[in-house]
């Protein structure tokens, strides 16, 4: 993981390290989570949001992860479950999935989930992560703790709403 302020050479170091690892025979994935990625510029090949092999370099693959891709993956993984839970309590349509997907921190939290999934698949021997500038990355690394505390509040709120809803549904005596 290469992190630091903008303009200090994170991308250059990440690309050099990934290239070296691939030259040493390691199947290497280079990930950029920078909102303004430049892997495509460094390798003079369009990288984009799908994993591609970097031309002329055996064993080197790269991806420039963007917010839209991460949010799409979140919706695919959790969207239906979110809809089922919320619609069991309130009369909502599937637009609630988009609403929840826009919650602060969802994209950052799921970016970590995406990178973890790539690691756990064990397809690559090495993963090199070119992070966003320091402020974004520090906030990203704090999200698991923040997200967990929010889930605690959400669970309690869900229970209160469900209990209240059940009371409303009971016939009055």
Helix/strand layout:
Layout: H1 10-23, E1 28-32, H2 39-43, E2 52-53, E3 60-64, H3 67-89, H4 95-101, H5 106-121, E4 126-130, H6 134-169
Parallel strand pairs: 1-3, 1-4
Antiparallel strand pairs: 2-3
Helix pairs in contact: 3-4, 3-5
Structural features, described:
The protein has one domain (10-169): Rossmann fold, CATH 3.40.50. The protein has six helices and four strands. The protein has helices at 10-23, 39-43, 67-89, 95-101, 106-121, 134-169, and strands spanning 28-32, 52-53, 60-64, 126-130. A four-stranded mixed β-sheet has the order 2-3-1-4, covered by helices on one side. The longest helix has 36 residues, at 134-169. The model has no long low-confidence stretch (mean pLDDT 83).
Q: What distinguishing features does this structure have?
A:
Rossmann fold, 173 residues, alpha/beta, elongated, 58% helix
Sheet having the most strands: 4 strands, mixed
Span between N and C termini?
Answer: 63 Å
Shape: elongated
Mean pLDDT: 83
Question: What is the number of helices?
Answer: 6
The appropriate CATH architecture is 3-Layer(aba) Sandwich
Total individual domains: 1
> Widest sheet: strand order?
2-3-1-4
Q: What's this model, at a glance?
A:
The chain has 173 residues and is an alpha/beta fold. 58% of the residues lie in helices and 10% in strands. The chain has one domain (10-169): P-loop containing nucleotide triphosphate hydrolases (Rossmann fold).
